[in-house]
Amino acid sequence: MSAIHCMQLCKTFKQGDETITGLDHVDISIEVGEFVCLSGPSGSGKTTLLNAIGGLDTHDSVEIHMGNIRIDQLDKGSLADMRLHNIGFVFQAYNLIPVLSAQENVEFVMQMQGIVAHERARHAREILKEVGLEGMEDRRPAQLSGGQQQRVAVARAIVSQPQLVLADEPTANLDSVTASHLMNLFSRLNQHHHITFIIATHDKRVMGYAKRLIKMRDGKIIGDEKQTPVAIEDVADSSG
Amino acid sequence: MSNIALRLAWRNLWRYPRRTWLTVGAMIFSNSLLVFSISLQFGSYEMMINNTLQAFTGHIQVQREGYLDDPKMRYVLPDITAMADRLRSSLDSNQIAARAAGFALVSSNDRSYGLQILGVEPEFEPFVSTIPGLIKQGRYLDKDSDEEIVIGSVLARNLKVKLGDEVTFLGSGRDDSFAAGVARVVGIFETGSADLDRSMAQVSLAYFQDAFTMGGSGHSITLRAATIDEVPMLKQRVKTLIAGRDKLVVLDWEVLQPGLKQAIQADMTSAWFMYGVLIILVAFSVLNTQLMSVLERTREFGTMMALGLKPSNLARLVMTETFMMASLGLAIGVFIGYLITAYLSVVGFSYPGMEEMADKFNLPDRMYPNVSLLSLTLGPGIVAIGCLLAAIYPALRLYLLLPIEAMRAV
Q1: What is the number of domains present in chain B?
Q2: What letter would DSSP give residue B349?
Q3: What is the pLDDT of residues A168-184, one digit of tens each?
Q4: Which of A48, A137, B72, B310 is exposed most, by the fewest CB atoms within 10 A?
Q5: Within this chain, do residues B315 and B245 fall inside the same structural domain, yes or no?
Q6: How many CB pairs under 8 A join A and B?
Q7: Nearest residue of B to residue A86 by CA position?
Q8: Prediction ipTM score
Q9: A100·B308 Cβ contact <8 A
Q10: Predicted pLDDT at A240
Q11: Under a CB-based contact definition with an 8 Å cutoff, are residues A112 and B309 in contact?
Q12: Residue in B closest to A47 by C-alpha
């Protein structure tokens, strides 16, 4: 079963008098449990494709299915609900809420989902432990390193056990050791929780973790190949 | 707080403590000012009503139906002294006095002037009127007064009479006969109102009834309540007590002195205009704060939307922040306003010249704000509502946000 299926996905931007093509009739199908990397130079359309799949942006012409739901026909509220319950996001700049602690950042999404207080606190602590942040639950983002903040962002993305995690350059602000640790974490979550990962990156080390590599240029898919990911054990783990 | 959204709202307020305190400070100032001003306003209205009514009118009068609009001599309360006695006894109050009134030409050796002559119960009139306390020369009437008169200072000057001089008066009796008498001036009052001091004289009710062929009747029974708030209850009790007496009416001060109520309403209107300006200024301060707060958090709101929050969730967050800010301003503002006002409501305060004026008019020499639940909550409540209304615009802007555009905001 496809986790994501896009047909003839187009997106153009206006920049002054010039029209720039972000996505040019992209067709893509991603199965449940896949670990996919979108690679390509800046401006190739990786982020635009992620935003389209996540229902964050409008499009010129598109048909996007997530499971059995055609998300391009959903209204704003239904899209928000779909993101809340089915998709986890990890951003390049972490995008944590600065006035909430690590645990509160993770819990906040669960509260919006209507999970009761004691249940979400327990679950948030478990997830933070799983991402290696045990004992740092009460720290605010400013008191955490970049790697730790990104792990909180990952915890927030996976806490509600979404079908899909979309990550946009998740290692761009991390040192190599922390980046490896984060990718190990993604790989484990993919293997243990069968969460589908789509990661936009131009970091070759990150691409090594993918089971499928999609190459993009000028808004088009120019390559789509399966590969054997690096073993998790191959990379040194660190607390980052 | 187990609710993270509430925690988030509260902490958002203190991201920029100086800005929040400036806005809350404006609320505190305006709320304190409103509590004090409205309490003072209510207190001054009560004082204004009491001062005006205790000068002469009283809070309540019992009259014959139609007398207020057309004060004819024949519109009388029969056996008025006994009726006043019964009311005093039933209501256990001395602040009740019977009166009769007529118009007459009063003459001295040199001059004549038309004026109103009142027949009063000298032993009870001081409880319902300040005029007995405003005698500047001589004395007031007493229960044995017969053929004695007290007149205003302007009239005394006009008639060129002094204490001990005699004046004659000539008018129409109840039965249209000539009413005439000669009375000795025993007191001269000075109310500060030239009109009153020129156009009114008082004699004892018994003497008036004799001179104006009133029999045992009079024209009104004046009652004074302990406070203005007790007037409706007192009015109801008097109505019950005179029930069955044909063609008698019980009139309260709002009917007896319609101009007084209009003056209060006019003052209230202008005061509320000023309060309105104050509230609008505070509301704009809140609008500015929340608009800035929303604009500078656009990126964060974009992230929240990407995580699955709807614009309505974000709007609720902004309204919650405003509610918390307004509640803080309300609580501290009302507390400070209450402390100041409660203190002044006990010790009172005066302004330069007030004591001299009070002494001249036989009135209280200090003003006392009237603290009540209404005066404590009315103004601050409207400020809080105004602040919440002001936050609607910043909250509505969130409905226009698109997640991806918001996340690109700097």
Answers
A1: 2
A2: B
A3: 998 888 888 888 888 98
A4: B72
A5: no
A6: 75
A7: B308
A8: 0.87
A9: no
A10: 39
A11: yes
A12: B404
